[in-house]
Amino acid sequence: MGTRFLPATKAMPKEMLPVVDKPLIQYAVEEAAAAGCEHFIFVTGRGKNALEDHFDHNPELERILKERGKFDLVEAVTSWMPKSGQISYTRQSEPLGLGHAVWCARDLVADEPFAVLLPDDLILSKTACLKQMAAVHTEVGGHVVAVSDVPREHTRRYGILDVEHDNGRLARAKGLVEKPDPEVAPSTLSIIGRYILHPAVFDVLDRKEKGAGGEIQLTDAISQTIGMVPFHGLRFEGTRYDCGDKVGWLEANLAFALARDDTAEAARDLITRFHG
Ligand code: G1P
């Protein structure tokens, strides 16, 4: 519900918050496309219609831009749009948890590996994070999630891996725990919002079991399939910004502005000015 970002998210879905000039959801779709995803399923809900409109044509806007000769802007509003037939929407009518949100897409996903991207985890990297994961998935199969080492006092914010083997880049886990207290967390390796999953998770999600916080947790469903399918966490190359948080979002704006040719110089000047 984007409560950490009120009042901005009172009438606007948090996925539409822009970083520099692009909404978070567009970054997620572009990352998925870069990784080779061909079909995009949005799990939406009440008040999220802006998401559907963002991924459709706006004929009036495009006509005016063309009349004014602003073809670069026509490109900016259309070039990244998946084609008709490549997008599906399903609604989660009650906020019962991330596992439940993913379960809502079960019939659209059917029986193949699929990716889950949580748009408020924004990743700046040379190679799209999901593309790095897809390359690993081709080798190891099963479930592959993006992971980061976090300070122990932060384990209660994340899904945490119970590591069996770790080569410093790829960790194989024998279990997963959702948001454990630091004293009992099996490691400090945490799940970031990028998953490539084996459809076996749907069999567990079908049971609608509640976990941490009384919610149907994706972490628990994945955990229950370990042993049947391999599970690996990839320490991806890149930096993750928590855009569900004010300061994380500000940091992302600076980092992305500094990484872009059209805004880098102005962003550097700005930082120098504020820094004194
Ligand atoms: C969700 C997952 C958690 C994961 C996190 C990544 O939590 O439940 O396992 O580590 O995303 O951002 P949320 O942030 O929705 O509470």
Describe this structure in words.
By secondary structure, this protein is α+β, with helices and mostly antiparallel strands. It has two domains: 13-244, Spore Coat Polysaccharide Biosynthesis Protein SpsA, Chain A; 245-276, no CATH class. It has helices at residues 24-34, 49-54, 59-67, 71-78, 98-103, 106-109, 129-140, 200-205, 218-225, 246-259, 264-275, and strands spanning 18-19, 22-23, 40-44, 87-91, 114-117, 121-124, 143-149, 159-166, 170-178, 189-197, 231-235, 239-242. The chain has a six-stranded mixed sheet. The protein is globular, with a radius of gyration of 19 Å. The two termini are 37 Å apart. The mean pLDDT is 96. 1-O-phosphono-alpha-D-glucopyranose is lined by residues 98, 118, 121, 158-159, 178, 190-193, 217-219. Belongs to the UDPGP type 2 family. This is UTP--glucose-1-phosphate uridylyltransferase. Its EC number is 2.7.7.9. Residues 2-228 form the Nucleotidyl transferase domain. InterPro entries: GalU_uridylyltTrfase_bac/arc, NTP_transferase_dom, Nucleotide-diphossugar_trans.
Entry keywords:
single chain, nucleotidyltransferase, 276 residues, Spore Coat Polysaccharide Biosynthesis Protein SpsA, Chain A, UTP:glucose-1-phosphate uridylyltransferase activity, 2 domains, 11 helices, 23% strand, alpha+beta
Short description:
The protein contains 11 helices and 12 strands. It is of the alpha+beta class.
